[in-house]
Write a structure and sequence with these properties.
Length: about 300
């Protein structure tokens, strides 16, 4: 039994990467049935309800901590991220969009310096350079015939996610907070501007077919409630650098799934860019591993570093 339990965190990491990775393909398919802003709002409402139900079933407190910061997190990490991510998927492929958005750790690293005073040191600069060079190769700003707008939206979604991550770090430095409860509140708060946006922007009506309802249920229950619970489970049992490997696994699954489902193709420069981005994120994980070996600390329950 002890041997089986030792394999549970890696198994949870695999399930998390596969589920979140395949979610990008489902999101692209969901846009067949719903316009982007309505789809983002419906996903957000479904995710919030699933998370609140999970909190209730787990007997965890549903308490709002730091309303001001939680509002800012909901507006950036949920409303801004969801709207831009879904909009980027309208014209962009799921695999390429996932790669652009999962540059988030590098934007977090760069933004944490002026905002949190966390200086970039040594090999972190190499990781940032590798990722940003890869980003440049994928975006190809010199090619005016490529779909720059979709790529721009993907990068802006990553920056929104990074902003929310920094705000979460600031909140956690000032307050004790249950990550699952925080996620539920930010989902609820973030759903409000998305609902307003969907109501104000002229869009076609959502096709509430069985296929679309199935996609929404999967995204709400599996991609949101289950995966956030798995994320908390993993963080409680492995170092943050090891958990961050899911950041690498998710876009890989998204690329493979999109290739098999939609036949999404990548040019040579884009492949080189993906390799450079993956190398930069892997280097960040290795730096975290080295730091954890030098300065072992007890990991707090349900936190994200």
């Amino acid at each position: 039994m002890s041997s089986f339990r030792r394999w549970l965190p890696p198994l949870a990491l695999v399930v998390l990467s596969v589920t979140w990775g395949y979610t990008w393909v489902l999101a692209k398919q969901g846009l067949v049935y719903a316009p982007p802003f309505a789809f983002a709002a419906e996903r957000c409402v479904g995710g919030a309800l699933a998370l609140l139900l999970a909190l209730k079933l787990m007997g965890r407190p549903i308490r709002l901590v730091a309303p001001g910061l939680t509002l800012a997190i909901g507006l950036t990490q949920v409303a801004g991220f969801m709207a831009l991510q879904t909009w980027a998927l309208v014209e962009g492929g799921p695999g390429k969009t996932a790669v652009l958005i999962f540059t988030m750790p590098i934007w977090t690293l760069l933004m944490a310096w002026p905002i949190l005073g966390e200086r970039i040191r040594g090999q972190q600069w190499l990781a940032a350079l590798s990722t940003l060079t890869g980003l440049l190769l994928i975006i190809e700003p010199w090619d005016m015939h490529s779909s720059l707008f979709s790529k721009f939206l993907g990068v802006m979604a990553a920056i929104c996610w990074a902003t929310g991550t920094i705000l979460v770090k600031r909140l956690r430095s000032q307050h004790q907070v249950d990550l699952l409860a925080l996620t539920s509140w930010q989902m609820l708060i973030g759903a409000v501007p998305l609902i307003i946006l969907a109501a104000l922007v002229p869009e076609r009506a959502t096709d509430w077919s069985g296929s679309y309802i199935g996609i929404l249920v999967f995204m709400s229950v599996a991609s949101t409630a289950l995966c956030w619970w798995l994320w908390i489970y993993i963080l409680d049992r492995v170092p943050a650098w090891e958990a961050s490997l899911s950041v690498l696994g998710t876009p890989v699954v998204a690329i493979l799934s999109s290739r098999l489902t939609f036949g999404e193709a990548f040019k040579s420069l884009e492949v080189a860019g993906i390799v450079l981005i993956g190398s930069g994120l892997a280097l960040l994980s290795l730096i975290g591993w080295a730091a954890s070996r030098r300065n072992p600390v007890k990991r707090p329950l349900a936190t994200v570093d």
